[in-house]
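ugh ok so i messed up the first submission bc i forgot one of the chains. this is the corrected input, ALL of the components this time, i swear. 687 residues overall. if the numbers dont match what u have on ur side tell me asap before i send this to the collaborators (the ones from the other lab, u know who)
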Amino acid sequence: MSFFSIMSKVLNLSLIYASFRAATPIIYAALCASVTQQANILNIGTEGIMLIGAFTAVTVSYFTGSWILGVLCAMLAGVVIALIMAVGHIKFGADICGIGMGINMLALAITKFLLKAIYDVNGAFSSPQIKVIPKVSIPFLDNVPVIGTLLNNWSLTEWFAIILIIVLQFFIFKTVWGLRLRAVGQFPEAAKTAGIKVNAVKYRAMAISGLIGGLAGAHLSLGYSSQFIENMTSSRGFMGVAAMYFGGANPVKASIGCLLFGFADSIGARLQAYGLPSQFVLMMPYIVTIVVLAISMAAQLRSAKRRQSSLN
Amino acid sequence: MKSVKDGIVRILLTMVLALLIGAVLILAIGENPISAYRALLKGAFVGKLSLGTTLASFTPLLLTSMAFVVAAQAGAFNVGVEGEVFLGGITAAYIGYQWDFLPAPLLMIACFAGAMVVTALWAFIPAWLKAYYNVSEVCTTILMNSVALYITSYLVSGPMSAGSANPQSPPVLVKLKQFMRPSSVNVGIFLAIAVVLLVIFMLYRTSMGYKFRLVGTNPAFADFTGINSKHVFIKAMMVSGMIGGIAGTIEVLGVYGYFLNNFATGLGSNGMLAALIVKSNVVATPFMAFFLAVLKSGAMGMQQATGVPKGLVDTITAVFIIIATMETLFDFLKRRKSDETKIELKDFGVSASSANSAAAGTDGKRPADQKGGKS
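and heres the new structure output, hopefully the right one now
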């Protein structure tokens, strides 16, 4: 088979949705990290918040039969975890990387422990009783050729991701709240002088980050899939943090970075059918993330230097 | 002396608190915490096999925790030890079964040397990106761990496969001698101790170690005194990678005798935990590594003797580290003395103890890290 015929099979319209679908969990993670980064807190614990959220969502959905409750409880759990980090970091002076990695370890360990304690299974839990987040199907779009394949049957949380990006972008850059948040991040002493309660702003940013992180987890376990697997986030939280760096904590730019990772993910999955070893497919998103992150940081550094020299 | 005493008191308090939280969890699933902890200790120490298993799991933890400490001394947060263990292991396995033209002692040395070269080069990538392009090494090393895992998994199921049902490499031609059978503890433990002593000597008695510590506490000052902080940073990461590679080699040559897919999951991250709990204190880290090894090897016994899943041990460890990172949590014990200075520092947004913190380099010392990212 020639290169072009493979490429024409790999690159088609449904790839766009596949990329977006693979990117959504990372987008949520990137938003989760962006909010705190604006307040100059590097949220390394994104991964852990997501994992706890995913587990809570599946558990609540399984026992109550309501996906809404599942998602809400996941968000609540996310807030609790984020606030543990916040109290540790802000009040008790914990190093954010240290406590963040601790949170990630805790999430991994406690979900494994609870998986065994509640469901008596190792590795993964799935059940038809888990109610998943519904898909938005618009009947008349079925007949519209291009838009039908592109936009129909998205999961509700996939649509909500787009709304959330826009809302966060607006709140961070166009409201007083966002201005204060950024002020706290860039120059806490000045913010304090201006009468802003620095720590209160930081706590609030962490709580919001927890909400988003919990939602990210719920989307992963109830929207993207319909089960809980041990370590199911598989570094998506860290990819989100990488995307946050890529976008300079700007929600829209960070989400574009996530789309790149999602693209790498879904194109690899398709190439697997043509004999590419699965390990290469699996490592592709990580490599793309590292490369994109390195290039974007180098570019940011260069532009920062240029601006500095023009000021002198 | 006072600070040493304070440190020990803090660690013990943290340990008690973590075990208490673990006890609450055990109670929550309807088991008896005291008998669970007793079973854990029994599973770690009573009997030749138990004790041997504890020592065998102590060996890699000792090295990986020290690998993290070396990087932390130079201000790097090296989460990549996990991947370095894997890559070191696979290199050692490759050389160990492929280079049959070498006599056994030389082959042994070649295994270690090859593993160290590969892991040093691997650690060079994130270090270089951090030093010259300010790319967060936490992010890159974590992502590179997954890449390393998939590379080794590809190699043992493809080009280096032994052709058996499990993805594993052919057996190596040299082995580190095991003693205390049937446990897998081997002479690698003495090698590990020697490496750790060497590292401590390097850190406190050589100019390279001095440069590491100087760059870790204040890279700008190091630059002013004519030390290239970027080079030192990269060097520290590479040394850290080498130690991770040694850990992988010992596991392959001493414990397994071949490279088994996913054989070292968690070795690197548990070593990191041990180092984080004691804030990368060089002397305290080996003891913490031993404590974690006890928890790990006792967990199986606890699961068998009681109904407590062994996952609980990881939970306790994680709680342990979360509490341990909170620098000022136990300050109420000595609040009266240092109250005023602390408030003063806090007013200026300076964390009083961030200078001592192992990984402060990642959030305090290179302000361009966050500020550059936002512009």
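quick check: Chain B touches chain A through 62 residues (CB under 8 Å). that seems consistent at least. The two ends of chain B are 46 Å apart (CA to CA).
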